[in-house]
Amino acid sequence: MNSNGDKLVHATGADNQIRCMAAVTTGLVSEACRRHRTFPTASVALGRTLTGGLLLGRGVKDLEKITVHFDCDGPIGNIIAQADATGNVRGYVTNPAADTTQENSMGKFDVRKIVGTGTMYVIRDAGFEIGLMKEPYRGSVPIVSGEISEDFAYYLSRSEQVNSAVSIGVHMTVEGNGTELHSGENPEFELERLRVTAAGGYIVQIMPSASEEIISYLERRIPSAPHSTEMVREGMAPLEMLECALGGVGLTLLEEIEPRFHCQCSKERALLIISALGHREIEDMLKKDNGAELTCHFCNETYNVTADELQRLLAEANG
Ligand code: ZN
What we know:
CATH architecture of the largest domain: 3-Layer(bab) Sandwich
CATH superfamily of the largest domain: Hsp33 domain
Bound molecules: zinc ion
Number of helices: 10
Order of helices and strands: EEHHEEEHEEHEEHHHEEHHEEH
Shape: globular
Radius of gyration: 21 Å
Helix content: 25-40%
CATH class of the largest domain: Alpha Beta
């Protein structure tokens, strides 16, 4: 259980003609940005990707794990998010200091500038738990927008042949004066005072059975809805966000879970990784550093391994 108020829902609407996932992720995006010390624009890129990964994973039957990977040629490098069926999500960016000094024409963080172009990959592991042992599903599309939401929509339509509306956002402020932070306004900002004040979004998928009527209704309705960060800032829960965006389409809630930032790494796993390097490598660590330090990419946790522990691993390897 978490207590940060994050929620993730899965619903259907219009007599199963649409499938919807929506989430409030302010808590888990804050946690991710705090751990990785991401600058404002990198925070928005990471937060959107973590949220998108959670939403996308919710629509997959028998999901074990979904990995979303933006391989970008812009300054941010890679953006990775990995979510599981219980709502655990973890992720990172290669360059947390990637930031822009200009707003885009919408007055928002210019995420596109730090993403650039490249490829978006989605890898889904499903069916292991029920013994199906399916091959992981892999899909990839070129990064067409760099603003993340549009890229998720493009991926869904091209790779999974599901037309979808995607709205994901992250809103930030500087603590103390409460002002909204747009990139470039405050180049001297202190990372410690940066706060993720709202994060969340939704994906609405149009099922093949959808009538022309419902499609044209949604095409008119969704673009005029408030942006998802505005809804989160107003305190809406995920189902209320969907009601606000879609109007009266008769939503049926299928499930609600509490997502959280969570990484599976541990000291034990760090020791296993070192052990797998082999005794020559371990002897090297002893000689050079009299110990070892391992940092998890996904959550930025650092594990210190003492000389004694390295000696024990050596003894086990030799024994
Ligand atoms: Zn970790």
